[in-house]
Sequence to fold (366 residues):
Amino acid sequence: MLPLYHSPEEFLTKNNCSLNSNPELPQQVSGIIEKVRQEGDAALKFFTQKFDEITLETLRVPREAMEAARNTLPLKTKQLFLAAIENVRSYHQKQRPESWLDKPEDGGQLGMRFNPINRVGVYIPGGKAAYPSTVIMTIVPAQIAGVDRLVLVTPPTREGSVNSYVFIKSLSGKLKEGDVIVSDQGGNLTWTIQAWEVKKDQELFSAFGNSPMGYALPAAIGAAFARPEKDIYCIDGDGGFQLNIQELQTVVHHNLSIKMFVLNNHAYGIIKQFQEAYFGGRYEGTIPATGYSMPDFIKVSQAYGIPTETITNHEELPEKLDKILAMKGPVLIDVLLDESQKLIPKLVAVKSEDVQRYISKPIEDM
Fold:
C-alpha cells in the first residue's frame, strides 16, 4: 500500500529528510501545489517555463505523435517489449487478490472486498530517455488491478537536444567487437560507465577516480598509436575538450582514425548539478551567463581540416551514427545535449543539525 501524505512537512519528516539545507522548502512546495490546484494546466505550463525553461502549447502528447514514435521501433524491440509486458501481466494476475464473501447460517456476513483506486499517475523520469521498464512495471499492475484512469507524465526537453543516456546506449549498440573507447571525466564519464555495454575484446579506458578534465583526447591519440589497426572513439564534454583542443593538429598531422564525440550541454554540467543541490541554483562560472563559454566546435574542427557532424535529436541519431562510423579518418561530432541534463541517480548530502557539516546519505537513498 502506498503511503498517504497530507502535507510536504509530513512527507519530509516521515522520510527523514533534513530541512537544514533549505528550511523554506515546505512553503515553496506548498505554494507550487496550491497554484496547480487553483489554476490547473496553466500553472503546470508556468512552472515548466520557470524550472525547465521550456514553453509548452499543450500538455497532452498527441496520439499521432505516439504512434509515429512507436513505428520507429525495430520489430525485434517491439517483440521484446510485448514479451516483457506479457511476463509482467502474467505475474501480477497470479498475485491479484480476489474479493470474497461468506454468509454463515446465523445470517451474518464475513468477507473482504478489494476495490481499485479511481486514478493512477505514473511519473516516467528522464524526458526523452528510454525507460520502458518504468512504464511496464507500473502501468501493467495498475491495469490488472482494474484502475479506471491511468495518466503518464514525463519531463519535457527542448526540441533539438539529445539525452546523454540515450546517446551512450545508442553508440554502444553500434560499435563492434574490438573497438577502443576513451571517456573523459565528470558527466560524460558517468553517463558512459552507466549506459555502456562492453562487447567482446572492446577496451574502455578512463582515468576514473582521478578524473582529469582534458584526458580523453590525448589518451585517444595514445590509443591510436598503440592500436593503429583499431577504430578509436573519444567521448568528451564541451568543457574538458577545450583543455587539449590544440591536439587536433596532432590528429590531423598523423591522420589518426579517431571519432571525437563532444557531449555539449553548454555548461560545466556536474558542477552545475552541485550548485543546484547545495547553493540554490546559483550557477557561478558554469554557464554562459556567468562566465563559462565554449567555441563553435564545428568551426574549430573545420579550421583544422577535420570532417564534422552535428547530432541534434533522437530521430536522426541512428542514421547519423551509421554515417559517422562509415567515415574514414578523424571526425569530430558535436552532440547537442539538453542543457538541463542530469546525472541520475546521485547521492546528495544534507546539512547536520548544527549546520556545520554535510552528511552523506546511505547509498540506498540515491
